[in-house]
Amino acid sequence: MNADIDRDRDRGVLSPADREFLLGERELSHEQSRRNAEARIRNRIEDAILDFDLLLHTLSKKDRRQVFDDVHTDDAFLDGLRAMLAFTYIGTAEQGLDFETVVIPAVRASEEAMAAKAAGENVSVEVTFDVDTEVGDSLEGVAATLEAGDPVTPRELFSIVMAGEYDPRALEEIPLRLSTAGGETQPGDDQFLERLANYLEADLEVLSETRAVLRP
């Protein structure tokens, strides 16, 4: 999650009050009020998703381009796009729906539409979507590694932070290993590490190409 959330920006799916509620910065005095807030947010999300069908087919090309004008320079906007896809990926997976049933028809139809509009061509589009998951250490194992003062990867640290059962900020130092077992760094790791440091409110020191340390 981006640590630099602007609580007071204009209302989108969420109002400023909704953001404060989700961040735990706004307490509701009654249990029913909390349930009402949660239901209101769920309904807005569902309505926003349904609105995208209308946006896709009716919003002008000019307006769509302006929405994405800063996609190459606005890190928060790019993070939002990734989070939007991640939210969809997790939500469909939890319901037993393969994400490929969402993404493959969407990409195919988009490529066909863009080819027809840009060049008047009828194209055949082949889309493949594969996810290879390699099982690493358990979260308990990551916590034990941190307690022993041994390095973990930024992704392992992120996983244990998101799980919420172990707070690495209690440590004086969090040593990090910046490369995979094969010696390769992951694309976007530098920005990911900086955002992780900001989220943990920790000082980041990069010791070498393969080592770094966070000091909460």
Could you explain the architecture of this structure?
The chain has 216 residues and is mainly alpha-helical. It contains eight helices and three strands. About 2% of the residues have low confidence.
**Class by SSE composition:** mainly alpha
Query: What is the total tally of β strands?
Result: 3
**Uncertain residue segments:** 181-185
Q: What count of domains describes the coordinates? A: 2
Largest sheet: 3 strands, antiparallel
Helix content: 40-55%
Count of alpha and pi helical runs = 8
User: Strand percentage, roughly?
Assistant: 5-15%
* Run of helices and strands: HHHHHHHEHEE
Gyration radius, rounded: 21 Å
Morphology: globular
Please tell me the overall pLDDT. 84
Query: In order across it, which strands form the biggest sheet?
Result: 1-3-2
Determine the N-to-C terminus distance.
Answer: 17 Å
Write a compact overview of the structure shown:
With 216 residues, this protein is mainly α. Helix content is 52%, strand content 6%.
